[in-house]
Amino acid sequence: MKTLNLKHMKKLFFLLGIIISTCAYAQQDAMFTHYMYNTLSVNPAYAGSRDALTITGLYRNQWVGFDGAPVTQTVTVHSPVGASQVGLGLSLIQDKIGPTKNTSVYADFSFTVKLSQKSNLTFGLKGGFSFFSADLPSLLLDEQNDPSFSQAIDNRLMPNFGTGIYYSRERFYAGISTPKLLENEYYDGTTIVGITNAKEQGHYFFIMGSAIRLTPIIDFKPQTLVKMTVGAPIEVDISGIFDFNRRLLAGGMYRTGDAFGVLLGVYISKQMVLGYSFDFSTTNTTMRYNQGSHELMLRYDFIYGNRHRIKSPRYF
């Protein structure tokens, strides 16, 4: 029997804690510091809201230096359908935590009702599926024959659907959504790490933001994302970003009970923006074993001639 040293045991217990919190009644969905650019992943009513074919990619490397820490990639594509009130989108997400991997593909549909000349209310539907895998036998354990870790889960198919509402004006938005309404079982009755019938939990999101003109060339964008689910504390992300003449971005963020961070960005062109963020843990459980979290974001708006020219600047 191979015995782990104290350092490895601490890492193993912490990794198992991550897995348990992912599979049990806790916040399960991947987090992003650039949540304000990842709205489609959580709210289908955002589809088509930018009056352009928009592609956004995000990459998050969380808790750098910690073996098995979360690594997440997201790609979203969305666009209005001609001059109609309909928007369509596609969300691709891959989230890896230790020996587990969750890959999701979701289609998004939205329908916009014009409330006034300056405001819209949009209703959205999301539908798709996830593939969940867990290579538990690959873990290095003190007791390698532990039956709790002897069975791998290979691409378990989990269909799901969700809905959302999104209100928008030129310089303000707010939305509520629940992207997963079904509670799929991860383990199909198998007991793993003391967990039986672990399920996907329904998550509820509230997102809101505004763009406040400070000077003719500086806008301040306060934004927040509130995440709620059964059996876990409410988590709130708060950020404030300064936009310097749509050329440079700089700001900070705070995630309750978890992290502080900074966000930086540059407009490569009027249609493309590149962002970077770094956040560091504030809890004793995680801050001892990692060197912070890095995140990259790239968004591009495809605008074709006068026919598809954006009528007014899109701040969100």
Report a brief summary of the structure.
By secondary structure, the protein is mostly beta strands. Helix content is 8%, strand content 49%. It has one domain (6-265, 283-308): Beta Barrel (Porin).
Structure characterization notes:
The chain has 316 residues and is mainly beta. The chain has a single domain (6-265, 283-308), classed as monomeric porin ompg (Porin), CATH 2.40.160. Helix content is 8%, strand content 49%. The protein has three helices and 15 strands. The protein has helices at residues 6-23, 39-42, 284-287; strands at residues 53-61, 71-80, 86-97, 100-114, 120-134, 153-169, 172-178, 203-210, 212-215, 218-229, 235-244, 248-255, 259-267, 272-281, 293-302. Strands 1-2-3-4-5-6-7-8-10-11-12-13-14-15 form a 14-stranded antiparallel barrel. A hairpin with a 2-residue loop joins strand 9 and strand 10 (218-229). The longest helix is centred in the N-terminal third of the chain and has 18 residues, at 6-23. It is globular, with a radius of gyration of 21 Å. Mean pLDDT is 83; it is low at 1-26 and 191-197.
Order of helices and strands: HHEEEEEEEEEEEEEEHE
Number of domains: 1
CATH topology: Porin
The CATH class name reads Mainly Beta
Which CATH architecture? Beta Barrel
- Overall residue-averaged pLDDT value: 83
End-to-end Cα distance: 56 Å
**Number of helical regions:** 3
- Helix- and strand-based class? mainly beta
Helix proportion: under 10%
As laid out across the biggest beta sheet, the strand order is 1-2-3-4-5-6-7-8-10-11-12-13-14-15
Shape: globular
Radius of gyration from CA coordinates: 21 Å
Beta-strand residue fraction: over 45%
CATH superfamily: monomeric porin ompg
| Sheet with the most strands, sense and barrel status | 14 strands, antiparallel, barrel
Low-confidence runs (pLDDT<50, min 5 residues)?
A: 1-26, 191-197
